[in-house]
Design brief:
Layout: H1 2-25, H2 38-47, H3 70-83, H4 90-114, H5 117-128, H6 132-139, H7 142-157, H8 169-181, H9 193-204, H10 206-222, H11 227-259, H12 264-270, H13 285-318, H14 320-328
Amino acid sequence: MASFDIYLQAIIFFTVILSAGFLWITRKILFAFPEGEDGLTIVSVAAQSSLLRWPSHVQRPENLGMYMKGMTILLLVLFQKIFRDKKSVVPLVALWGTANAISAVLIFLIGTSYFNPLIGLIVSLLFITSFWPWQTALTMGHINIATTVFLAGVYSTTHIVTETGNASPFWLILAGAFFACLFFSSSSAIKYFPLAFVSLLFTKYRIALETGGIPQAIRDVLVPHSEAMVVYVFMPLILAIIGLIIIFSYKRLVARMYVGNLPRWLVYVLSFFNLDMAGKSQFALEHYIKHARRKIYKAVSVWIFRIYLFGTFILYPLGLYFILLFLSGFV
C-alpha cells in the first residue's frame, strides 16, 4: 500500500502541474472558428443556464445538435461560474483540460486494480504526457468528457464484485449511470460501449480468471442457468414475432408516412430503417413502398441478428440480475 500512496500522490502532483501549465497557456485563447463552431454554441447554451428550467432543455429546437454534448454543457455551467465568464471559450477549454487530469487519475486507479500500482502509473503517465488529449482539449474536447465518464464507469465496475464473490448493487447501478451519461457526452462515445460491456464481463468472471484462468472462466460462462430459456427460446420467438409484424405492416406505415398521417414517435422509430420521404412531390407512393421493402427486410434481419448477439454474448454471460441492476443506472 505504501507504493500505491506514493504513486497516487505522484500522478496527482504531475497532472496538477500539467493542467496548471495548460490553463496558463490557454488563459487568453480565442474561438478557433468564430462562426459555425460547436464550441461557440456550447458556450452560448451554457450561458443561458438560468433560463433552462430543466437540464433537458439543452435539446430544445434552437439548440439542435447539442443533445450529444449535454454533459459538457452542464459541467460548463459550473466552470463559467468559477471563471465568472459566460462569453469566452476559456472556461470551456479549462473544463476539457481538467477532464484530462481526472482521466489520468482514473487510469491509474483502474490500472492498479487490474494489474498493480506501477503499471497503473506508467499507463497514466503515457496518457497525460501524450499530445492527443491536450490537442482535443483546444477545439473538440467533448470527447475528453466522454473519456472521463467512460473511465469513471470502468472504475465503478472494479468494485462491483466483492471479495466474497457477491455483486454490489450500488456500484453496479453507479456503473450503469456513468455509462448512460456516455449517450450525452459525445457522438464519438459509441466506440466506448463495447469496452464498457467487456469491463462488466471481466468484472463478473475476474475471480474465475484469477483462480483458474481463461478455461475456468469459459466453464463458468457455459454452465446452464435461468437466462438460457430467455436467450435461446423466448428471445428468438419475440424477435420473430416483431419481425413479422414489421414485414406485414410496413406498406400501411409507409402509406401513412407518405401523406403525413403518422405520429412523431413512429416517424422516429422508422428512421432506424433509413426511410426518407424527401422528394415525395416527384415520386409516387409505389416508388417508396418498393424501396422501403428492400430497406426494411435488410434492417429487420440486421437488428434481429444484433439483438441475438447481445443476448448470447452479453445477457447470457452477465445474467439477468446483473443486467437489470446495470440498466437501472440508466434511469
